[in-house]
Amino acid sequence: MLVYSVPVANFWIIYRLGQLQQPCRAQLRARASAHRAFATPPLFTAIGVLFYLLHSSSDYLVWSALWLAILFATLFASHDMPAAPARKESRASEWVRSAHGVSALTILLVFLGPHIANHLTAIWSADLHKAVMNGLRVVYRSTLIQPALVGLVSFQLVTGGALLRTRLVGKTDFFGSLQTASGAYLGIFVISHLTAVFILGRQAMQVDTNWDFAIGVPAGMMGDPWNVRLVPPIRSPSCFSSPIWPAGCATCCWAAALL
Residue 133: which of 149, 120, 152, 148 has the closest Cα? Predict the structure, then answer.
């Protein structure tokens, strides 16, 4: 629960900064950094996957250095310099937003909906989960569907990043803040997940990325010091030593000072 407090606290920062009519540049930078802090769970996992592929145990050191750099960059920014006014949405932006929504719906219908339903079958048994997954893989791992899905996901990342960038400079409401925060979180999660499955699982480890891969067999999620980062809500006592929490707290401290 302590690790979960990081996204919750930073969402409050995102919402409050999003209500400002004419924010300065430091406040816009704080708003962007609060989105990064909101997405710390998948970001920490992505960095862990990267350094695992590099056969390096320096992920904790790099993680700390990253957040110290973000902290100092914001602390020493000019707080009284006005930001450029937000631009009105152009026709090109409207097209990007529409295409982003259509591609998201396509992914949801073709892959994500069945994929989540597949995960729910694990409530009954791991064997049922594997059986359903093997059946679904005939469709979404086919030579036509899988490249198309990867292309759609990549399109989501590019267009979502562009839309997020434009939304971070304008005033927004609670729903808008929820949309940008969840978009930042999901974008980093997708990058982390694709890297883990396609590069770590299939290429580096050369294992079947099924239920066993997902739960970190044989050690399990809670029985391995690396795997435990995959389940931040149930870190138990280790959450107090998790680098996610101090990183998020540091972000909250300086961002709150700019409200």
Answer: 120
